[in-house]
Amino acid sequence: MNNSLIFNPPVIAHRGASHLAPENTMAAFIKAAQLGAKWVEFDVMLAASGEAIIFHDETLSRTTNGKGMVAESTFTKLSTLDAGGWFAPQYSGERIPLLKDVLQFLKEMNMAAVVEIKPLVGEEEQTVLRTLEAVDALFKERDSSILFSSFSLPSLKYLRQRSHHCQIGLLLDEWEPGWEQKCLNLKCVSVHVNEAILTQEKANKIKEMGMKLCAYTVNDLSRASELYAIGVDALFTDVPDQLINGKIIE
Ligand code: G3P
Ligand code: MG
Does 71 reside within a domain? Predict the structure, then answer.
């Protein structure tokens, strides 16, 4: 697959500018835009009523004033929850966003997204379908501003079956046996790797395969410099402003 990914600046705002605003909310994506990020990352899962929403955890308690499982809550219920007050009082009233609304904002801002699909086990097909529906409504299949990824191999396989031309990044927390073949089979354009396991040798291998290399999650400038030096194309970070401006993180 032709690799037309461009990361400039080489920073992906992880769950938005999640150091300065509540993660995975519109406030965090707006903040990322204001800080000069061109790429954001967010997590997609399904509400019980089937809508694709932006949320990280399987449960509501850490980042909202709700309780219980996200997947057991309808969007009508989810949309009443406060997804910002846990972070800071000024963000009280921030809501769990729908994928389609965040995509609309990014399109208007001419920004790009790593769309990380986080399905429940057994819900992979439905989660991919709902995600594709929202993306396809706004972006062409070959649009280089949407890059899908997932820790769920069944989701990536299903995604590739449904979409021949979409961009896929393999997401690796460990060097799983056969990761290279998975990249080839899925026609990946990038590998997104836990920064702690990245080596020069693995970076070279990924580049030789013609893929972009992204590493997560890096909030420290000296570590960021090391990773850029071994060939990383972009870093997922909670502090996009600090990496963009080159300040040392406290
Ligand atoms: O997509 C990279 C990174 O977000 C993966 O880990 O748990 O933050 O979704 P997590
Ligand atoms: Mg993520």
Answer: no
Confidence class of residue 113 from pLDDT cuts 50, 70 and 90?
very high
Is residue 26 domain-resident? yes
Q: Which atom of ligand 1 is nearest to the CA of 236?
A: 2
**What CATH number is associated with residue 147?**
3.20.20.190
Give residue for tokens 């995975």: 24
Burial of 185 (0-12, 13-18, 19+ CB in 10 A): middle
Q: Is 192 a catalytic residue?
A: no
Nearest Cα residue to 168 out of 148, 146, 195, 138: 148
pLDDT beyond 80 at 1: no
Gap between the Cα atoms of 170 and 192, Å rounded: 6
Q: Assess whether 165 carries a catalytic annotation.
A: no
**Residues at CB less than 6 angstroms from ligand 1:** 14, 41, 43, 56, 114, 116, 149, 171, 192, 216, 236
Mean pLDDT of 68-94: 98
Query: What does the pLDDT look like over 157-189, one tens digit per residue?
Result: 999 999 999 999 999 999 999 999 999 999 999
In a domain, 40, yes or no: yes
Nearest Cα residue to atom 6 of ligand 1: 216
Region 42-55: mean pLDDT is 98
How many separate domains does the chain show?
1
Cβ–Cβ under 8 Å, residues 215 and 235: yes
% of the chain residues with pLDDT over 90: 94
Q: State in Å: Cα 149 to ligand 2 middle.
A: 9
Atom of ligand 1 nearest to the CA of 214: 2
192 within some domain = yes
Is the full-model pTM beyond 0.85?
A: yes
* Domain interval for residue 223: 11-55+97-249
